[in-house]
Design brief:
Elements lengths: L13 H11 L4 E6 L3 H6 L6 H5 L4 H9 L13 H11 L7 H14 L10 H12 L6 H7 L2 E8 L6 H9 L5 E6 L2 H4 L6 H12 L6 H17 L4 E6 L9 H12 L6 H22 L2 E6 L1 E2 L4 H7 L7 E2 L5 H13 L5 E6 L5 H8 L11 E3 L9 H14 L19 H19 L7 H19 L3
Parallel strand pairs: 1-2, 2-3, 4-5, 5-8, 8-9
Antiparallel strand pairs: 6-7
Helix pairs in contact: 1-19, 1-20, 11-12, 13-14, 17-18, 18-19
Length: 466
């Protein structure tokens, strides 16, 4: 029997162990998609306990606790930090096979030197020891970023958001990590959603533009892109449920914009036409700037409307969608390619049924402007477990060029989430090691080390121009 989560955790062959410990383990991290707060990084306040670090914004853990029958009082309610931690410790033993179980213990090991399993019996001791360590006041967001060897991270920001915190972080120069904003204009695209007109006022105020028509909308978005570029932005980010592609031309999109601005309801075709034209416009802008365009597909959000009304969005009530992807995604990429304005693009789907679609879509639009210009994003959200990560890399290897893959991201709101990169790297080395051990790839350590180092971080560094 293997020891519990020891130094060779998930490494099932001697080749895998060598690849991980010699080439992957100490590589820097590029977290090109996360939901960390630039404000919190800038203010750099120390945490007092594990509840603050783990449970204040982690819907992965919240879903597990709800699945264990824990009352909401101990999840997002007013229970004490200690009682919330104990409720999570009560849940964890039941989460066998869930990546949260592994991530929790990796974080305890890497940041606190605690190797014992967390459960109701050990929880009081774990709480006491972690509080003792945190009491030194040094365990701040910047401390955890530095300790995790993060070379660069991209915080997800709306075009209307202030970039003042990014500027202050850069000016203070107390952190070597590049803290960059990623441009996420989902609110501008959400013409059918309540609050869209109010959002335009906020966007207009941020850009110094009175948004009254299509031209002033694109002007405001472009002005904010300029501000993001000045702050070091290298990527955009889009979260869409079903892929929109109904090209109607800018004039009809402008008509839909005016109609929605007046308060009138739009038809489904008008919504999709507007979104398509704005996505095409954005894609052309990204290409001009050399930014990568991330597209996250097939998340079915806010399924439990009663809970979302009480607790807000992004509180653990989303799931996998099954919207059609192939034809409309092809249409969007083809339209941008046809005009010579297809940006570097990273494609994610929350539904693993789309993996083959995406993996084969890449090869339609690759060119010499960048190695694997069109990327299949890493296993995302409900797929970022051991099975999902391995499946994503296998299908990418089957259909594309795994050696040019830009690798893992955290998609996280937690400053302790960086062991997810370790988890990914162990799975990567185990997969490659299995191919070598089975005689499917030569035992050429120089080439293997190069591949591992590239997938861990160098491919991303080059792809994003970092």
């Amino acid at each position: 029997m293997k020891p519990f989560m020891d130094q060779d955790f998930m490494l099932q062959s001697e080749t895998a162990k060598a690849l991980y410990h010699q080439y992957a383990e100490n590589q820097p991290i590029i977290d090109y998609h996360c939901h960390l707060s630039a404000k919190e990084i800038c203010e750099n306040r120390p945490a007092e306990n594990l509840t603050q670090l783990w449970l204040l914004g982690d819907h992965y853990k919240w879903r597990a606790m709800r699945g264990n029958g824990i009352d909401e009082l101990y999840i997002t309610g007013d229970a004490s930090d200690y009682d919330k931690f104990m409720a999570y410790a009560q849940t964890l033993p039941y989460a066998i096979g869930n990546p949260v179980y592994h991530w929790t213990h990796l974080e305890l090991q890497r940041y606190f030197g605690i190797n014992q399993p967390l459960n109701p019996k050990t929880a009081p001791q774990v709480w006491e020891e972690t509080c003792r360590i945190l009491s030194d006041g040094k365990h701040t967001p910047q401390h955890f970023i530095r300790q995790s060897n993060v070379y660069a991270l991209c915080t997800t920001e709306d075009p209307a958001d202030t970039l003042a915190y990014h500027a202050q972080i850069a000016q203070e120069k107390g952190l070597d990590t590049k803290i960059l904003p990623a441009y996420r204009p989902d609110n501008a695209l959400g013409i059918e959603k309540p609050g869209w007109r109010e959002y335009l006022n906020r966007l207009g105020a941020s850009a110094g533009v009175d948004i009254s028509d299509w031209d002033s909308l694109t002007k405001a978005l472009r002005i904010r892109m300029d501000a993001f570029a000045e702050a070091g932005c290298v990527a955009s980010d889009h979260g869409v449920q079903g892929m929109p592609f109904l090209p109607v031309g800018p004039e009809r999109a402008a008509d839909s914009f005016r109609k929605a601005l007046s308060g009138a309801a739009l038809s489904a075709a008008e919504v999709e036409g507007y979104q398509t034209e704005l996505l095409l416009w954005l894609g052309r802008e990204y290409a001009r700037r050399g930014w990568a365009m991330e597209i996250h597909l097939n998340a079915l959000r806010n399924c439990n409307t009663k809970a979302v009304k009480a607790l807000g969005e992004s509180t653990g009530f989303d799931s996998v969608g099954d919207f059609p992807v192939a034809s409309k995604l092809c249409g969007l990429l083809n339209s941008l390619e046809f005009s010579g304005q297809l940006p570097k693009t990273i494609l994610f789907s929350l539904n693993d049924a789309d993996n083959l679609v995406i993996a084969t879509m890449l090869g339609n639009f690759q060119d010499s402007s960048a190695a694997s210009k069109i990327q299949m994003g890493s296993a995302w959200w409900f797929q970022d477990h051991a099975d999902g990560m391995e499946a994503q890399m296998r299908i990418l290897a089957n259909e594309g060029i795994l050696g040019r893959f830009i690798g893992m991201l955290t998609d996280s709101r937690s400053f302790l989430s960086y062991p997810r990169h370790e988890y990914f790297r162990r799975i990567l080395c185990n997969l490659i090691g299995s191919w070598v051990e089975n005689g499917q790839y030569p035992d050429d350590r120089e080439t293997l080390g190069m591949l591992v180092e590239r997938i861990c971080w160098l491919n991303a560094k080059e792809y994003f121009g970092l």
